[in-house]
């Protein structure tokens, strides 16, 4: 069973590894949602089908915290919170090139190509594109790489990957968006570090933080992030 980061009667958050599939798809590979349903059924001795709602998604090569809803009430409220940007989403990214500024908010127009499963980035609006915004901050550096903290202000397909590549900072290991070499584990160096939101039922502040991936490249930056 994967690591549980937060759990109550309404929501459950787990640690997603870069190899994990968040939700079942056409590949037929084992998925986190199926694993969590089994865990809930066994732990709480629930007969029949277990309800589990997918609140948001992480790309398969991305690791970090991912949140699911355990009730339909929590799911509908969380869906609205994500849609209206009431959830603070903090990511960490390792890139090869130093960004143009140490801190900046960048806005582009993103258009997904379904056939390629890739997002294209434009400076101006084009037909079928959607506005996307994020703020990045330079938080650390090593001999070869830079660590960026990224706060998402929208939730577009491959948004962080595509927007960072657009400013000349493709994420380490991300061949699809221009990094020259893959990572040994097949993942990319993008990490969902933290979620902050008001609990959809209890109405209390919730902060969920994932521990760093257990790989050497991340350990170099452990002192750079609180």
Strand content: 25-35%
Cα-atom radius of gyration: 18 Å
Distance between the amino and carboxyl termini: 27 Å
Helix tally?
A: 4
Shape field: globular
Q: What pattern of helices and strands is seen along the backbone? A: EEHEEHEEEEEHEEH
CATH domain topology: Pseudouridine synthase
Q: Would you give an account of this structure?
A:
This protein is an alpha+beta fold and 226 residues long. It has a single domain (4-224), classed as Pseudouridine synthase (2-Layer Sandwich), CATH 3.30.2350.10. The protein is built from four helices and eleven strands; from the N terminus they run E-E-H-E-E-H-E-E-E-E-E-H-E-E-H. It has helices at residues 32-43, 72-83, 159-166, 216-219; strands at residues 4-7, 11-16, 53-54, 63-69, 88-95, 103-113, 118-122, 130-141, 146-152, 190-198, 205-209. It is globular, with a radius of gyration of 18 Å. The mean pLDDT is 93.
Gist of the model:
The chain is of the alpha+beta class and 226 residues long. The chain is 16% helix and 34% strand.
Keywords:
34% strand, eleven-stranded mixed β-sheet, 16% helix, 226 residues, Pseudouridine synthase, 4 helices
Secondary-structure map:
Elements: E1 4-7, E2 11-16, H1 32-43, E3 53-54, E4 63-69, H2 72-83, E5 88-95, E6 103-113, E7 118-122, E8 130-141, E9 146-152, H3 159-166, E10 190-198, E11 205-209, H4 216-219
Parallel strand pairs: 4-10
Antiparallel strand pairs: 1-2, 2-4, 3-4, 5-9, 5-10, 6-7, 6-8, 8-9, 10-11
């Amino acid at each position: 069973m994967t690591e549980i980061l937060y759990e109550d009667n309404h929501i459950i958050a787990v640690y997603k590894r870069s190899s994990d599939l968040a939700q079942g798809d056409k590949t037929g590979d084992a998925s986190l949602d199926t694993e969590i349903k089994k865990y809930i059924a066994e732990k709480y001795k629930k007969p029949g089908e277990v309800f589990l709602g997918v609140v948001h998604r992480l790309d398969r090569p991305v690791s970090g915290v991912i949140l699911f809803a355990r009730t339909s009430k929590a799911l509908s409220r969380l869906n609205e919170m994500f849609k209206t940007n009431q959830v603070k989403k903090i990511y960490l990214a390792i890139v090869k090139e130093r960004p143009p500024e140490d801190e900046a908010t960048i806005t582009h127009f993103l258009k997904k190509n379904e056939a390629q499963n890739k997002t294209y980035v434009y400076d101006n609006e084009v037909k079928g594109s959607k506005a996307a915004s994020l703020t990045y901050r330079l938080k650390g550096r090593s001999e070869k790489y830079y660590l960026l903290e990224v706060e998402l202000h929208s939730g577009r397909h491959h948004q962080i990957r595509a927007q960072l590549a657009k400013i000349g900072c493709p994420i380490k290991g991300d061949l699809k968006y221009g990094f020259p070499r893959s990572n040994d584990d097949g993942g990319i160096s993008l990490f969902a570090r933290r979620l902050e939101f008001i609990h959809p039922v209890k109405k209390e502040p919730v902060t969920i933080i994932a521990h760093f991936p257990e790989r050497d490249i991340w350990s170099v930056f452990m002192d750079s992030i609180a």
